């Protein structure tokens, strides 16, 4: 798992018109090439009467799979410019399809490059993008004398508490960025004179959207809904 990557939380659409040609962009979260191709096929059926459905998808945290297509447009005027925009945004696990309804006027090579690039930018602007951070779910157990210091450290670092349990001891679970977990553990150990027990439970990705913490299935909750909308 890499420390952080940018992806789609909720897909969107955008449209531009250039010399009467309509360029409709659709942005979707996809986590495999199979998902990307399935979504692409659904969009081709939705826009069955369009002249072109050009696309780009990047799959994998380390961009293991990268594909783009001009879909009948002159070579290098659609797929590659679209890819440049998506890579420039630093996105992973994303599919962008730009559907073109021809307006009767040729745009030329430069015009096509600009139109497809702008269409992708419009689609991304209407989507919700997030930074997924590799985190560690950490279980902390302490006595009541130590909880105040621990809470202070968590607030200082902006670490969210997932759950807490107060019995004869206090147990809390927190989600810590992987890059910060060792330092936080050292600070808690020092702040409680070694009395706090710390257990690293698992690594998982999380993100924040409008101040809301999202992780687990919540990160992909819109993917299936959007797939259903396409039929």
What can you see in these coordinates?
With 231 residues, the chain is α+β, with helices and mostly antiparallel strands. The protein is 35% helix and 39% strand. It has 6 helices and 11 strands. It has helices at 33-46, 79-88, 108-125, 144-157, 178-191, 221-230, and strands at residues 4-10, 13-18, 21-29, 52-59, 65-69, 94-101, 128-142, 161-166, 170-177, 197-209, 212-215. Strands 1, 7, 8, 9, 10 and 11 form a 6-stranded antiparallel sheet that branches. A 5-stranded antiparallel sheet has the order 2-3-6-4-5, with helices on both faces. Strand 10 and strand 11 (212-215) form a beta hairpin. The longest helix is centred in the middle third of the chain and has 18 residues, at 108-125. The protein is elongated. The model has no long low-confidence stretch (mean pLDDT 94). Residues 140-195 form the UPF0029 domain. Belongs to the IMPACT family. Pfam families: DUF1949, Impact_N. Residues 19-123 form the Impact N-terminal domain. One of its GO terms (cellular component) is cytoplasm.
């Amino acid at each position: 798992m890499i420390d952080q990557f940018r992806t789609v939380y909720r897909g969107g659409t955008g449209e531009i018109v250039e010399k009467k040609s309509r360029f409709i962009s659709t942005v979707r979260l996809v986590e495999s090439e199979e998902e990307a191709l399935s979504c692409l096929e659904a969009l081709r059926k939705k826009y069955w009467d369009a002249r072109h459905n050009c696309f780009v998808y990047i799959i994998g945290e380390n961009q293991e799979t990268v594909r783009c297509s001009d879909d009948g447009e002159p070579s290098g005027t659609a797929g590659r410019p679209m890819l440049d925009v998506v890579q420039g945004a630093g996105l992973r696990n994303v599919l962008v399809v730009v559907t073109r309804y021809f307006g009767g006027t040729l745009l030329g090579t430069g015009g096509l490059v600009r139109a497809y690039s702008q269409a992708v930018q419009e689609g991304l602007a209407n989507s919700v993008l997030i930074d997924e951070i590799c985190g560690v779910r950490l279980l902390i157990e302490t006595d009541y004398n130590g909880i105040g210091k621990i809470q202070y450290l968590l607030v200082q670092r902006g670490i969210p508490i997932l759950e807490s349990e107060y019995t004869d001891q206090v147990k809390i679970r927190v989600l810590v960025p992987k890059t910060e977990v060792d330092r936080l553990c050292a600070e808690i150990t020092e702040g409680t004179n070694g009395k706090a027990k710390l257990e690293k439970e698992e690594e998982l990705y999380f993100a924040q959207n409008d101040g809301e913490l999202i992780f687990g299935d919540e990160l992909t909750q819109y993917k299936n809904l959007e797939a259903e909308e396409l039929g």
